[in-house]
């Protein structure tokens, strides 16, 4: 009996020793060295983004927030009383302007100083306000009205709400295609699609009562044909 117990204890000791000993690579198998598992900084960054998508999203949201903040009025209370359609009264409105293709005043000045070639390059790179300026300048300064109109309508179809300001400006310019009712109608369309500040646009000033009715009727038609009954995206106004 004692001999049997001793044999069992010996077998148990051998099993425990085997469990506590790290496995060694078999002969002929490739061993992995620390240098082989080292991750380059670029790959490490990619892995961190993959492992922590929330961190990546927060970084993108932060960058977007910094861009949107440029729409907020930077002056004192008196200076901010006069606000055009490119100025936001709140962070929510600033985000709305950014999402719908509106430029800041500084960005608009930068783009207006560019020629058609530069604007085209900016537009092709994904700059939404540049696409509007490119279409507008093509129609007015480039004397290619239909081409410019097509660029602006394409931008509008891509839900660039600022494109309707460009369309209004094109029809309001001193060219053979000038049409104040059409110009006003595109601002009314921007209003119907959610931009409450579009109703105060210069194209709507000075129109007679009859012309205003005609502009409203034309806007209703454009809502069906150009905007294709798109749902409004209300501008957050406090």
UniProtKB/TrEMBL annotation:
It comes from the Bacteria. Residues 1-17 form the signal peptide. Keywords: Signal. Residues 23-67 are annotated as: Disordered. This is Sel1 repeat family protein. The lineage of its organism: Bacteria, Pseudomonadati, Pseudomonadota, Gammaproteobacteria, Lysobacterales.
């Amino acid at each position: 009996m004692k001999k049997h117990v001793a044999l069992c204890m010996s077998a148990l000791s051998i099993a425990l020793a085997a469990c506590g000993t790290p496995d060694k690579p078999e002969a002929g198998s490739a061993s992995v060295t620390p240098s082989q598992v080292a991750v380059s900084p670029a790959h490490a960054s990619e892995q961190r983004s993959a492992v922590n998508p929330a961190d990546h999203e927060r970084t993108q949201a932060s960058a977007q927030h910094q861009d949107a903040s440029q729409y907020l009025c930077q002056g004192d209370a008196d200076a901010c009383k006069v606000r055009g359609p490119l100025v936001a009264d709140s962070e929510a409105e600033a985000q709305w302007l950014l999402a719908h293709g509106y430029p800041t005043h500084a960005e608009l000045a930068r783009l207006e100083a560019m020629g058609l070639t530069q604007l085209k390059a900016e537009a092709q790179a994904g700059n939404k306000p540049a696409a509007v300026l490119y279409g507008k300048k093509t129609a007015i300064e480039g004397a290619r009205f239909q081409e410019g109109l097509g660029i602006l309508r394409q931008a509008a179809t891509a839900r660039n709400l600022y494109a309707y300001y460009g369309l209004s400006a094109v029809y309001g310019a001193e060219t053979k295609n000038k049409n104040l009712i059409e110009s006003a109608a595109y601002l009314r369309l921007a209003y119907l699609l959610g931009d409450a500040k579009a109703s105060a646009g210069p194209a709507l000033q000075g129109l007679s009562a009859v012309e205003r009715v005609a502009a409203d009727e034309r806007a209703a038609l454009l809502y069906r044909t150009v905007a294709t009954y798109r749902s409004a995206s209300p501008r957050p106004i406090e």
